[in-house]
Amino acid sequence: MSHVLQRLRQQLEDPLLVKTPAGMVPTARALALVEPVAAVLKEVEGLIKRRPRSIRPAAGARLQSPPPITSKPCYCRNWRRASPARRRG
Known about the structure:
single chain, 89 residues, mainly alpha, Arc Repressor Mutant, subunit A, 2 strands
């Protein structure tokens, strides 16, 4: 946690928390950031929880599955003919 606090202090150029006899006390800048940061976090949480819309194809559109692998041409024969071992032979 202290590493994160150190990075925040550097980024915001503010100590954010100061040590007092009563314990750690937030600075005025830290107190001013509470509400805006809470609002941003709430918005992010809403985005994460939101479910994506389902995909609906246009009227008349048909989804096609890709052709099976066996329907693709085999280039193995051409590779064998072009291999350096075959040419030397």
